[in-house]
Structure prediction request, 459 residues.
Amino acid sequence: MKITLKVSGMTCAMCVKTIEMALSELDGVRAAKANLNSETVFVDFDESKVSLNQIIRAIEDVGYEVIKERREAVIKIGGMTCAMCVKTVEKAIEELRGIFDVNVNLATETARVSYNPSLVGIEDIKNAIESVGYEFLGIEGEETCDIEKEVREKQLRELKRFGIHFENLIYVQFLLATVAIAYAGRGIFKKAYSSLRHRTLNMEVMYSLGIGSAYLTSVLATFGLIPGEFNFYEASVLLMAFLLLGRFLEARAKGKTSEVIKKLMGLQAKKATVVRDGKELEVPIGEVKVGDTVIVKPGERIPVDGIVLDGKSYVDESMITGEPIPSLKNAGDKVIGGTINGNSVLKIKAEKVGRDTLLAQIIRLVEEAQNTKPPVQRLADAVVTYFIPSVLVIALLSFAYWYFIAGKPLVFAFTTLLSVLVIACPCAFGLATPTALTVGIGKGAEMGILIKNGTKRSC
Prediction:
């Protein structure tokens, strides 16, 4: 089985490597590829050896969060007469993989189903209901829960909360620094621990060394165990504040890029009017099939790619072609899904539906472009692997030189160690490069410029 999971919390190339190593250790995982730009993890695995829950648990064990996409649908069911009917239908639906919750109501003859659309579809739910002897009468309503947006907004709120630290007396500094680091910095230290447990070095390890060294030294100075000059509370907290500010800006940039793709998805029609058995029926867009006759009234979005069977109308195709003047469509002309019908009714034969429409292919093109790694990012990924241990070695050598060879005071030598750890942050390699590429591709899509491939000079 192959699946792509949305993962929150990846901030650098070492995060990617940590997740990939954790998944590769699972028996049954054939391939695992994490992508920092789109915050996704592609996994190819053998279901007979490892379950999806085990894969999710492995990602969460190394300090990251798997965002589970959720959609809710209200389904009309026929043939239920008693409480046992309710239990039978609920059990049949719950046994499907990807179902989060099922609530069947006998009085209204409906079932509210919460499910993961990447694992199970309406057709699977319909088959499950009919397999136990009841009728699937259609969908009354459907709603997508934007869990990714909720998680990102939660991260932004937490990152905003601890951005300021006031310098005061040493005991006040101790109290404020302890609370700030224990609460706001817990994610950094947790990821550093997980990285070390899996024998890898990521940016969190270096951050933790810089913040932890400054904080612990300051604590010893606070209680008189070492000279009072070793007060680095402001350095530890300000370093953490800068890191959180960077994470906040990164999360906001990625959030805006995700919104661009969601805007493109918003151009797709949600329902369609089809002619079946001589009657016009309004059905969800997912139930439209190739060959169906679709009726599009003035002002409605055309739901499919197809050919005009009957009618004459002007169609606004600016979202595809950029041409502001509507195009006149007659019988025999082709129309594109997502464009807007103007002044008259059109009868259209569906030739391409769902993922095969031109608009769906454009959305997929933007997503694939964001998932590719240009040469500059591959170089950044390679450099950052060796950059972190090199920085740690240089920091220790700086301390040793100034203290043991140059004979400088311990405070000065320790300050040079902290300076190297703080200044030599590989954000430009591990964070700025992929974030710039993601935002650039998303901004281009928003302005009508589609990047076909991140590895070639073509668009």
